[in-house]
Design goal:
This protein has 14 helices and eight strands. It is elongated, with a radius of gyration of 23 Å. Strand 1, helix 1 and strand 2 form a beta-alpha-beta unit.
């Protein structure tokens, strides 16, 4: 790190709070703001300065300011920007580290550019493990603004020269993160199907925990996702008490829509997204329709409640 920086962190959920903590550990000066006073207090106890709002946090910084947003995508981002703009000055930078749609990031960057305020979109991966392991940062925006923030990115990344990069103009960071999450959907689905197949082969008495550990070392499918699968199976080998309901946070849908718009075949990502939809239908109308159609044309049995 070339020099410590002053930065406001807006949004202290688990990931935002961990990122702020990592910045403090790296010697940066953090101003923390969140709707939860308890979340702010935790950061203050770790060495941050606390603020009651995003605007107050920005006002506590000296220009050129850097304000990092870790808040839900969509309207909350626009509302926060509206609060920040009257406080910010030309040359200041807003960083959106959440999972915003890249098209919205392009729009926001253009709107703020008219005020000579930079908007950097930073796709962030690492989850709850990023505090200790570092975060993967996919960054879009103006070169000058990104370069000025280099010490922050170097601190948040796994190493100053690894796990982060300026991937393109405004919108590029969130586009790359969107594709990253689409790939993640497909990888997770493949692991889920493979372990389900082995669990179903009861006559071989396969131990999913043992197999995950074998695969973690030397196999071509070794990965952090496999590490997490091994950890989950060690904690709960039969997944007892876990409902077969899988949510999605939007990036998979956006990835599939981009594939359609660009005429790119992406069947694995698309099907993995549809499998998540299927998991939420405990009383599937489609499956019931399939059953009655088989009954109608072939007299096949139907299980009735």
């Amino acid at each position: 790190m070339t020099h410590p920086m002053e930065i406001a962190m807006i949004g202290l959920g688990r990931m935002g709070g961990n990122m702020a903590t990592r910045l403090l550990r790296g010697g940066h000066r953090v101003v923390a703001a969140d709707p939860s006073p308890q979340a702010v207090d935790r950061l203050v106890s770790a060495g941050a300065r606390g603020a009651r709002s995003a605007a107050q946090a920005a006002g506590m910084l000296t220009s050129p300011r850097a304000v990092w947003l870790m808040i839900p995508a969509g309207k909350p981002i626009d509302d926060t920007i509206a609060q920040l703009v009257p406080v910010l000055s030309p040359g200041d930078t807003i960083i959106d580290g959440g999972n915003s749609n890249y098209r919205e990031s392009i729009r926001r960057a253009a709107d703020l550019s008219a005020r000579d305020i930079h908007y950097v979109d930073c796709g962030t991966s690492g989850g709850i493990w990023g505090l200790e392991n570092g975060y993967s940062l996919m960054i879009g925006g103006d070169t000058h603004a990104v370069e000025r923030l280099r010490p922050v990115f170097e601190t948040l990344a796994p190493a100053p020269d690894k796990g982060w990069g300026h991937v393109g103009p405004p919108g590029a960071g969130h586009f790359v993160k969107m594709v990253h999450n689409g790939i993640e959907y497909g990888m997770m689905q493949a692991f889920a199907e493979g372990f389900a197949l082995m669990a179903k082969k009861t006559d071989l008495s396969l131990d999913g925990r043992q197999i995950a550990e074998i695969w973690r070392h030397g196999s071509v499918v070794r990965s952090w996702l496999l590490d997490l699968a091994a950890r989950a199976l060690d904690e709960n080998p039969t997944l007892e008490g876990v409902k077969p309901w899988v949510s999605d946070s939007g990036e998979g849908r956006w990835t599939v829509q981009e594939a359609i718009d660009l005429d790119v075949s992406a069947p694995v990502i698309t099907l993995s997204l549809f499998e998540r939809f299927r998991s939420r239908d405990a009383n599937s109308y489609a499956d019931r329709m399939l059953a009655v159609l088989r009954e109608q044309f072939g007299g096949h049995g139907v299980k009735r409640s």
